[in-house]
Amino acid sequence: MRVVILGCGRVGSKLATTLDGEGHQVTVIDKNADQFRRLGSDFKGTAVVGTGIDEDVLLRAGIEQADAFVAVTNGDNTNIMSAQMAKVIFNVPKVVARIYDPVREATYHDLGMETICPTILGAKAIQNVLEGNPLEPSVY
Asked: Which value, to the nearest 10 degrees, does the dihedral of the CA atoms of residues 102, 108, 112, 115 take?
């Protein structure tokens, strides 16, 4: 699978190295080249410096051949806009955007965008612990 990941923070770099280790073709975009250090020396994918809402940057990252696009920057607006671009302009088959704001996440999810909201997931996990349902240890 050819995957383009926007954002090389903790989540983006973890996803990139995991997919790369499984043999997928991974390209990571980040506006800060220093973030690519998170990928480690074993990373066989490609790193592209730039912003994910710039069509030229997306093209350099190979968006036209991508099977999937994941937007995991720290900015909801950037994630939403880049995911829409990947889906509508470049017709990427699988697009996922992380959106921190639960209201925005629900709105965009209702509009057909695949979204992940760590705010909601975290709150639900904490609620489960408070109600006596311990979390499963992370297998990742």
From this structure: -50
